[in-house]
Amino acid sequence: MDRRDVMRALGAGLVLPMLRGFSPEQLNAAAAKIRDRLPSRLPGYKPILLGELQYQTVTVIAEHILPATDTPGATDAGVGPFIDMMLAEWYKTEDRDKFLEGLANLDDRSSNMFGATFLKLGEAKQVALLHGLDAEVTALQDADLETDSYFFHRMKWLTLFGYYTSEIGQTQELQAAIIPGHYDPCAPLKRDTPGEW
Fold it and tell me: At 39, is the pLDDT very low, low, confident or very high (cuts 50, 70, 90)?
């Protein structure tokens, strides 16, 4: 099983708890509206909610979660701008504040562990710090404790959601056939046979 298969499998487990706040239709609507408004040239994106350093941190974390390999990574798919717009326009204030607190806490942890903020660390130390956060999420899940509002759990979910609703995620990663040549983010699935998708 390669890294992408693992991430797809994890995605199912990450998405289910997050659906409590939104219906599938609302999630599809959110993704479609955000994708329709993202600029065609993502390197020039100016964050609307996140500060510049917060935005860079989110982008780096997303790329560590889904790095470019033989297929494009999170940065190529515009996950950073997607997360910024999702937080700004679709998150409740309480959930947005928890995410931003977690982002600030990441820099605090980084400074305590390595003497520098997250963005100033080398890749190996950044990944080590993220592995520690991931281990905390796993421990909470193993203890049957709530992880929905935990920063890294939400960050992983937003990364997967942003990636797999992007054109890159759909066409190059999932190899979805877009017919008749039009990209429709989060197109609803239709049943052909009762009991089958």
Answer: low
Place of tokens 């939400």: 154
The CA-based angle 106-64-142, given to 5 degrees, is: 65
Instruction: Give the residue carrying structure tokens 């190529």.
Output: 76
Answer yes or no: pTM beyond 0.90.
no
- Rounded-to-integer distance, Cα 80 and Cα 110, Å: 21
For residue 122, which amino acid is it? G
In Å, what is the CA distance from 129 to each residue of 61, 64, 91? 10, 11, 26
In angstroms, the CA 155 to CA 152 distance is: 5
Per-residue DSSP letter, 183: -
CA distances from 17 to 8, 21, 149 (A): 15, 9, 10
Structure confidence by residue, pLDDT tens digits, 115-127:
999 999 999 999 9
- CA 117 – CA 96 distance, rounded (Å): 21
The pLDDT tens digits for 57-115 are: 999 999 999 999 888 899 998 999 999 988 998 888 998 999 999 999 999 999 999 99
**Spatial separation of the C-alpha atoms in residues 135 and 133, rounded to whole Å:** 5
Under a CB-based contact definition with an 8 Å cutoff, are residues 183 and 170 in contact?
yes
For position 181, what pLDDT does the model report?
A: 57
Strands (E), 118-159: none
